[in-house]
Design the sequence.
């Protein structure tokens, strides 16, 4: 159903091991309490039997004896059940880890084979190099370039008019798998041996991963394609009074709308109950999908942020936070849509601030290793292709507490959507945020507490606009 939420840690199963462990802990506490109660009932029975003053209450001896025995039995049962639940939780966690490891290994091997195959194709095509050069020369002619543009525009238009081709959970999952295996494809294409590829890849040392692939794309794109530039960030409009968001839906509505010439960042300042300053930062998504524009929230920043490089959008957000008074170590809560969520995740990963919460909407941030101390919630739509571009979620000690809340926004006929970007629009994510607010899932308690801890009373909000500074 379109309005059905799925809450998970992003793994292969829907079993919440955290709830299992919490239940086991509660059973252990009950077992200890029941033992104390049984002991107290036993002492009370002894008093009625041996104390002269308690003799009038001797009628209660059978009941106290039964209560003591029942409580002791309940304590023993709770202790046994707690052990069983603990073992089940461990088994599910171990099974999940093994399943993810096996799937990752299969994806890596498949990617390596694809890369090797492509390399062999290129080598086999070397005799055709003169013909390819001639083709490239012809393609440079204005008439041919116009023809290619018309064909490309027709293809793009077809995708827009038929979102069912891309707005499909199965297709999104396939893209996520391909992106996750991109580093293995790259190593296979480069001629790296399989043992070396396994050692360097995610299954080994992790020296080569999605960040490496994004970095390679920046280099291959050429000097003028994805070149980062200095960024100028300035205040936009007047400082206005505001109050902390009362819900996730309200926080989602405060993320600046994407648009050329519009502000991309909003910073709110509050006073925390501890007396310290507390900030909420809202970051917009990609504005420009081309190159050589004034917008730092562009494809160059997308690639740079994935590559963990100096993205213009990242620099702009840090500049805006500094101008708003945010100092290293201050309490911050981060909210971002699309590229804005990726930037927010990189800020949380840096640990430069005391990040309390990180909420992303449709963001390719799954492989950013955010510290587990951060309350991290990723809101995703099953038909949204953008989160899949971040690959499979990071595994290991960091990132395990990343909670994924997803839903399908289309029914069985996604082609009925207005456009191909419907699954990625912030309007749709605001509706999903409202459903999250109404959810009774206990795993979302941390998010509720984080929202309530942003601050209290009146605060000050300031919007910021960033532009690239291009020479010449």
Sequence:
């Amino acid at each position: 159903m379109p309005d059905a939420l799925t809450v998970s840690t992003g793994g292969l199963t829907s079993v919440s091991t955290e709830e299992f462990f919490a239940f086991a802990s509660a059973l252990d506490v009950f077992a200890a309490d029941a033992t104390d109660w049984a002991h107290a009932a036993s002492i009370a029975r002894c008093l009625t039997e041996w104390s002269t003053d308690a003799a009038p209450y001797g009628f209660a001896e059978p009941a106290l004896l039964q209560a003591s025995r029942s409580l002791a039995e309940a304590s023993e049962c709770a202790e046994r059940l707690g052990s069983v639940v603990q073992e089940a939780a461990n088994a599910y966690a171990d099974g999940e880890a093994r399943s993810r490891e096996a799937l990752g290994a299969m994806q890596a091997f498949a990617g390596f084979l694809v890369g090797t195959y492509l390399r062999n194709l290129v080598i086999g095509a070397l005799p055709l190099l003169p013909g390819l050069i001639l083709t490239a020369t012809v393609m440079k002619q204005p008439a041919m370039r116009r023809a290619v543009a018309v064909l490309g525009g027709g293809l793009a238009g077809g995708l827009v008019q038929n979102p069912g081709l891309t707005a499909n959970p199965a297709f999104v999952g396939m893209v996520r798998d391909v992106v996750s295996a991109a580093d293995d494809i790259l190593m296979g294409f480069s001629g790296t041996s399989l043992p070396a590829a396994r050692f360097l890849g995610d299954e080994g040392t992790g020296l080569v991963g999605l960040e490496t692939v994004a970095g390679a794309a920046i280099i291959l794109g050429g000097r003028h394609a994805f070149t980062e530039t200095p960024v100028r960030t300035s205040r936009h409009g007047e400082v206005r009074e505001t109050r902390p968001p009362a819900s996730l839906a309200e926080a989602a509505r405060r993320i600046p709308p994407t648009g050329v010439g519009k502000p991309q960042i909003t910073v709110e300042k509050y006073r925390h109950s501890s007396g310290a300053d507390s900030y909420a930062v809202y970051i917009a998504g990609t504005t420009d999908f081309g190159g050589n524009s004034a917008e730092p929230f562009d494809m160059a920043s997308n690639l740079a942020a994935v590559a963990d490089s100096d993205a213009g959008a990242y620099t702009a957000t840090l500049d805006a936070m500094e101008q708003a008074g945010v100092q290293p170590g201050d309490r911050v809560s981060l909210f971002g849509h699309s590229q804005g969520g990726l930037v927010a995740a990189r800020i949380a990963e840096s640990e430069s601030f005391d990040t309390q919460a990180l909420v992303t909407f449709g963001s390719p941030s799954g492989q950013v290793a955010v510290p587990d101390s951060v309350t991290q919630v990723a809101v995703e739509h099953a038909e949204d292709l953008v989160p899949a571009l971040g690959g499979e979620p990071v595994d290991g000690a960091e990132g395990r507490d990343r909670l994924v809340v997803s839903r399908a926004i289309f029914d069985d006929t996604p082609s009925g959507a207005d456009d191909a970007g419907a699954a990625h629009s912030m309007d749709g994510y605001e509706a999903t945020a409202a459903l999250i607010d109404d959810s009774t899932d206990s795993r979302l308690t941390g998010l509720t507490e984080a929202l309530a801890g942003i601050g209290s009373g009146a605060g000050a909000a300031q919007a910021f606009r960033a532009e690239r500074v291009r020479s010449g």
